Amino acid sequence: MTGNDHRCGALCANDSRAAALAVPFLIPIATDAHHSHRAAALDVLSGPARARHFGVASRDELLLHRTDPRRHALDGYDEYGVEVAGYPAGRSVAAARAAVTVETPVLLPLLNDSDPIIRIDAACAPATAADPDHTVRTALATRFATEHDAIVRAALLPAAAEITRAHAHPPTVRWFRERWQDRTEAPEVRLAASIGRRFLTDEPAPEDLHQTIDTFGTDERAHATDALPWMNAAGSGQPGLRRCIRCMLHPEEPEPWDDPWAFSL
Description:
mainly alpha
C-alpha cells in the first residue's frame, strides 16, 4: 500500500465528517480504470456510510444500516454515537450514504470489472445505498448469475443481504435459502449465504444450516473469507467468519479475551 493509500484509509477511519466529505471525491477515483489508486479509493469509500461496523459481528448489527439514523434522537444525537469533534455521527453517515446513492449508476458497472478485487469492493460499496426500487439488489443478483470466482460470489451475498435488510424483499430471502442449500456451490458461497440468510429472518436457524456452517467453517476458509470486507471488519483481531459464527449461532460463548481460561496454558 502506498502513502496515498494509507492517507485515504486514515481519512475514512479517523474523522467521520472529513470522510463523508471525501466520499464524492473518492468515487470518481474508484471508477477511473486508469487511476493508480482506484482500488484503495473503492476499498474505503463505503466505510463512512456504515459508521460503527468495525468489530461488529452480532446478528442485531452486522449487515445493518439505518435509513434514518436520527429517528429516535430528540436532542439531535443518535445511535451512531458522537464523532471525535463532538458532532452527531449519524449526520455524516447519512451524507456519505446519500453520496453513494447518487453515484450508484457509476458504481454498479464495476461489478463487471476484470479485477476480482475490484468486483469484491464493487459489491460492498453500493450495498450502503438507498435502494427502494431494488436496483442494487437486482444488479448484485444478476452479477451472481454470471460470476465464476468463488470469493467474489461469496462477496455478492452479504452485499445482497445488507441491501435487502434495509429494503425488505421476501423473494431474496428465499433465494438465500436456495444458495446455502445448493450442494453444487463452493463452500465459501454456501457459508456466505448461510450467514446472509441468518440476518434476514428471525426464524430459528434450522439444523441443516447449523450443519452447513459447522462443516465448512474451517480455519482455512475463515482466513479466505477475510477477503470479504464485512468479515475483515468484523474480526477484531481474529478471523471475522469465526467471530460471526460464534455471535450468530453461539452467543452464549464468551469472546476469547473474556474467557478466564483462554491463556491458562
